[in-house]
Amino acid sequence: MTDIDTAAPVLVTGATGYVAGWIVKGLLEAGCTVHAPVRDPGNAAKLQHLSDIAANAPGEIRYFKADLLEDGSYDEAMQGCAVVFHTASPFTVDVKDPQKELIDPAVKGTRNVLEAANRTDSVKRVVLTSSCAAIYGDNADIANAPNGRLDESVWNTSSSIAHNPYFYSKTLAEREAWKIAEAQDRWRLVVINPSLVIGPALQARPTSESFNILRQMGGGALKSGAPRWGMGTVDVRDLADAHLAAGFRPDANGRNIISGHETDMLAIALTLQDRYGRDYPLPKRAAPKWLAWLMAPMLSDGLTRKAVANNVDIPWRADNSKGKRELGVTYRPLKTSMEEMFQQMIDAGQFEKA
To answer: For residue 23, how many other CB atoms are within 10 A of its CB?
Structure first.
């Protein structure tokens, strides 16, 4: 368990998000004052789950109005904060205009938050939620990584605005963060690079892309078979612990791959089979790669045949030893995370029984 310094307030951008909610919970339970910059501080319904946590915790939460794309809008919220967690960034695959919907919010948002840190003398550390997407673009890239396994020295060089624009946005945003951090010496940047985030959310109807993948599995879209699309996964609660360690452990540094399991889309679905397979149309077998390739453009605007060719039936491999060693991260079983996530979606009425 990381010792959390509660002497100064802590800023969390994107506080209403899936990952940020668990970070905020950990901070409040440790007794911190959390500054939460949000688009609309008057939207009590959207903030209710955070206010409820604060009501039952020794810490307190204060809301501020801010916008990722507005210069200087984080200055007020950052006053007096020693640690800044920048988690706010869009995660979606179906986009019409990647520059406007993904790249601008990711890059300009990161620049805005870090330039505010430059103007705020109290800030000693910034923790950026980046992604393994800034490390690789397609599973095919992993063959060129050291010993065929992703590590913190690797950067995504295969993504572009036309191919994997979400991955491209995360790469550009993290590079911008390092550029700003290296041009000053008052605060330290620590970067968290998670794989696909799974596990229960604190809000009743979460909107993260992870839940959309599960919705396809439990809703019957993949009933005839799921592709063996290799990926890493990490439970959102283990990821929140990694962030807290990155914020408060004295020796936390650099990039940190946070991923508990090397798996694939079918293997993820199969973890749910014992408990839910009788009642929900979960996939039981692998969809052949040729079929996934053929169907890709029809399944989703964001899914291309090139992506299928470069990811399906190619295992995902990453070295997570730095996070374990330096941040003390431990990982709960994949089955536990998936069952708790799926059950939450059932309870929220997001699936019909078969």
So the answer is: 27
Q: Which residues contact 198 (CB under 8 A, 6 or more apart)?
A: 210, 233, 234, 235, 236, 268, 334, 337, 338, 341
Q: Which two tokens stand for residue 257?
A: 């791959």
Domains and CATH numbers, the chain: 10-347 (3.40.50.720)
Q: How confident is the prediction for the chain on average, in pLDDT?
A: 93
Question: One-letter amino acid identity for 22?
Answer: W
Average pLDDT over residues 200-217: 85
Q: Which residues contact 104 (CB under 8 A, 6 or more apart)?
A: 69
138-178 tens-digit pLDDT: 999 999 999 999 999 999 999 999 999 999 999 999 999 99
**So what's the pLDDT on residue 212?**
86
Q: Is 170 a catalytic residue?
A: yes
d(CA 31, CA 185): 29
**pLDDT more than 90, % of the chain:** 80
Query: Which among 258, 260, 261 is positioned nearest to 244, based on CA atoms?
Result: 258
Contact 108, 176 (CB under 8 A): no
Rounded CA separation 93/300 (Å): 9
Token pair belonging to 249: 């452990």
> Could you give the C-alpha distances from 226 to 99, 213, 215, 230, in angstroms and in order?
30, 11, 13, 11
Tell me, what DSSP letter sits at residue 102?
I
- How far apart CA 290 and CA 166 sit, in angstroms, is 24
Residue 56: how many CB atoms within 10 A of its CB?
8
CA distances from 209 to 93, 199, 307 (A): 8, 12, 17
The continuous run of DSSP H or E covering 84 comes out as strand 83-86
Tokens of 205: 């109807």
Beta-bridged to residue 231, according to DSSP, are: 263
- Check 25, 96, 170, 322 and give the catalytic one: 170
**Distance of alpha carbon 188 from alpha carbon 1, whole angstroms:** 21
In this structure, what is the dihedral angle of CA atoms 283, 94, 348, 232, given to the nearest 10 degrees?
60
